[in-house]
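Question thread 4412

I'm putting together a teaching handout and wanted feedback from people who do this every day. The idea is simple: show students a protein as raw sequence, then show them the structure tokens that encode its fold, then repeat with a second protein so they can compare. Below is the first pair exactly as I plan to print it.
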Amino acid sequence: MTRLIRNIGWLLSGRGVNAVLSLVYLALATRTLGLDGFGYFALIVAMGQTVTGVANFQTWQFVVRWGAGDDGPGEATGFAIALDLLSVVLGSILAAGLCWSAQFWLPLPTDLLPLAFGYCLVSLFAIRTTPTGLLRLRFEYGRATAAEAVQPIVRAIGAILAVIFLPSVWGFILAWAAAEVAVAAALWFAAGRRERIDLSQISLWRIPRDHPGAWKFVWSTNFTGSLNVGSKQVLILLVGAIGGEAFAGGFRVASQLGQALVSLAQTVSKAIYPELVHARGDAHDMARRMANIALVGGAMAVLVAIFFGRQGLMLVAGPEFGVVYWAMVILAIAGAIELVGASLESLLVSAGRAGTAFVMRAVPTIIGLGLLKVAMDWNGLKGAAFTVLGGSALSVIGFWVAVISLSQITITVKPKPEDEPV
């Protein structure tokens, strides 16, 4: 437990740097581009993150799961890199289709579509879950945090340069693209210094040959990761398609500020998963304690959002974004719920129930996306935020029920002693 708290501390320190710098570049982008321009920017970033989220395999989990044996992470790393290359191919096809069709359903000017496609490709080539997995396998959270800090630093510097030299959507997207490349290079460099990366082990067949059921785990975690990342970005795209670019920009700001807890939930999940893999018998107790801590932290964060969120929103993004305050509060509550559920979801995945975790995430997400237009017609951005809140609540309830069932299955019944002879 001590090591887990220390690792979470490293990750939270990185999140702290990211949070502070994100306020800088968010303020620069919103005030420079305005509500509509920031909406175009938000749609392009959402397209890139949607493509990457859908195509990207959660290879860091494979490295942790199959690289912890006596033979080392060589084959697991080779399998992960092969999946990354597959992600680039599949993602490029998806990006081409998404950018071509955007003219028919997104409020995005046609002159920005080549920029959107280029950003999608850069995001795909900057996939970095494999080196992240190598660092987490060795519990090198300090190195990982230092490498990941490159992204917000480059974004902030790039945003400043964009304001000075190219104060347009093009300038800010170029800054974001440069940050993606920089953080990927930093993580691969850090992982390469800690672990020898043998490119001759790249293969899609060795791990599945030695570990039956590997492909089932791969696809389950991929679908879950796609839902966790892609669905949130798809939501921004759909909000823009239904309400226009101003709605997309407003929802992006509300989501970034209100759902900072979701990033915290992902941080907790990433730190606790390797510990649960190694903990075995103590996994349930560890997950329960982390959920209790998360409950307190989430409640405090929601109170901060309610009492100080409006002032913070207008200070960072400007007065014209003040209308998204209640959407931000609703998303903060959804983030608090996700924070509680993070350890429960990790427990299911570490126990080999990735498919169950996917179903518990997929069904509420699909329901929420299906009800999005009805919710927005009812109450605009607040309605969209309520779909996120409902999906998060249903998913975490599902995780809780599944964990209870899992704990009942894993309890061993003490055999009844044989009757002693009279």
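The second pair follows. I'd like the answer to focus on this one:
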Amino acid sequence: MEFLKLFIVALMPVLKVLLITVLGTFLALDRFDILSRETARKNLNTIVFFVFAPALVCGSLAETVTSKSIVTLWFMPLNVLLTFIIGAALGWLVVKLMRVPHHLQGLVLGCCAAGNLGNLPLIIVPAVCKQTGNPFGDADICHRNGLAYASLSMAIGTIYIWSIVYNIVRIYSSKISNEVKVDNSMFSSNSTLENDPENISNDRSHNDHVKQFEIECTNSNGHVKVSKKEKIMKQVKVLAEKMKLKALFAPATIGALVGLLIGVVPIFRKMLIVNNAPLGVIQDSLVMVGDAGIPAMTLLVGANLIKGLKGLGKQVPIVVGIIVVRFIILPVIGIGIVKGAIHFGLIHPDPLYQFLLLLQFALPPAVALSTITQLFGVSEGECSVIMLATYSCAAFSLTLWSTFFMWLVL
């Protein structure tokens, strides 16, 4: 009977997400013509990326995270990082075992690495606290603490997603575009160089210049003299170009950093957060804008599922691999990690906090992946297929895992 009560408590928040997702799917039907057009979804994605997501992260963190809570919750960034590292490692195994096509490898790695650490915990954890008979004590205290934990989870996840997963997808998408460019350039060079003597002479002069450069750089023994400093600088330059450090500071990442700054620095809290704060209207406006982020992102998931219905049969092995990683292997590993941390006294004894740490291992792929693939214009259809399958399974697996996690921490 106790387990049945926990199951009902866990089911209600998942149903809320499912209902909003279904609404997004209906809005994407041609009959309604609201989110059915590609431009409409792309425009909403852009608004989410530049406006809703940073406002949501900034407003939630500024209100709920303090310097004291940061010290108490230090294990959460490590826990989230472990979900990304272990998920990416398991994703690499899926890529190798399933022989995933090159253009889908970045997407598969991203889906296995990044869970939905944003809107799902922010909906599920406070909603669990509001349920009658919730196992975490007083509803108001539970709701306040749950909001703080979920906000920090969302901020950390946002930083990792837009710094790690964003660059994984970007690197693989750039490899694809480079391969296309190489193929096109080879085709055009074969057709022009054979018939254009000017191109032949230019090519010869370029080869002569390279040979002259090689002679200047070699010593009497024929070995190239390159200092260690030059090698290191070259490697740093290549790494910076590959990472594109500007991409680390996506709008949501900047919002997370600003929110943490406001929450942690006392003078900023007094000006923006506390009762009768002189600049409190700014925080209120930010929260109002951010509140639109969760339903907008969830509606986009539902709208993008329409694409997934058309190509589900083609990607079954890949989808099965991702589902096994995210809903079976990762949660089991997560139980071992969190229970081990509790045993060694690394986590403070709050069942709600422990529940969220476990939940981070059992979430479906991040909604931001849909935004990222649309920003790069790569694997959008396949991403919709994966989202359709994983979020359909999440309605059942997330309810079962949430029930088991609540039973485990009490």
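Top answer:
Good format. For the second protein you could add a caption like this: Confidence is low (pLDDT under 50) at residues 185-189, 197-203, 209-218. The longest helix spans residues 139-193.
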